[in-house]
Specification:
single chain; 210 residues; alpha/beta; Undecaprenyl pyrophosphate synthetase; 31% helix; globular
């Protein structure tokens, strides 16, 4: 096992490229989402191995609901399936998203705004479901705290799929996060992706503006 002097305490995961992967592999666009569930658990095992304490996964956003119905149904189902599988692991789950919207899966209501322990609770897993950055920040001005206030600042954000943008991913918690891009689609995940990101992170200057 490779060792690292610095391991980010909180990693953000943007698992992009599901639809492009599906098209390139002869599937319909909607099929990419179900192929994106297994990689999340492979990554989970590696984060446990290297002592990552917390991870936030992008499920789907308010803007993703503009996609075709079959795609919306597919990524919603993938999110529900991921949580059902996580129940058999050792993690503390927190789901953040606009649960008052009809786009929010009712199966996940019980996990909204409360951290639910599974197994030995070895890592905090945050899951953004029907998340909207404007909704999140609006709560700060109206209620004095973010909707996502329980999620701490991010140390490292990793985005698959090659695009260089946050796409509204936790804007408040991302202020000083280092941003690593994987030039491969999320369903093609392999352990080398996260290890390359951790190697790159060793040389990041974490002065936090000081």
């Amino acid at each position: 096992m490779e060792s690292f002097k610095r391991v980010p305490g909180h990693i953000g995961i943007i698992p992009d490229g599901n639809r492009r992967w599906a098209v390139e592999n002869g599937y319909q666009k909607k099929d990419g989402y179900r192929h994106g569930v297994k990689p999340g658990f492979e990554l989970y095992e590696t984060m446990l191995e290297y002592g990552v304490r917390e991870a936030t996964f992008y499920g789907f956003t308010k803007d993703n609901n503009k996609r075709e119905k079959e795609q919306r149904e597919a990524f919603t189902e993938a999110c529900v399936d991921a949580v059902e599988l996580l129940k058999g692991k050792d993690a503390n789950l927190l789901v953040i998203g606009n649960a008052e919207s009809p786009a929010f899966p009712p199966e996940l209501i019980q996990y909204v705004n409360q951290r639910v322990p599974f197994g030995r609770g070895l890592i905090n897993i945050n899951f953004l479901v029907n998340y909207d950055w404007e909704w999140d920040l609006k709560s700060l001005t109206e209620n004095g705290r973010l909707e996502s206030f329980e999620i701490p600042k991010l140390d490292l954000i990793i985005r698959w799929g090659g695009w260089r943008r946050l796409s509204g991913f936790l804007p408040a918690q991302s202020v000083y996060a280092d941003f690593y891009i994987v030039d491969d689609y999320w369903p093609n995940y392999n352990k080398s992706h996260i290890l390359d990101a951790l190697r790159w992170y060793q040389d990041c200057d974490r002065t936090l503006g000081g």
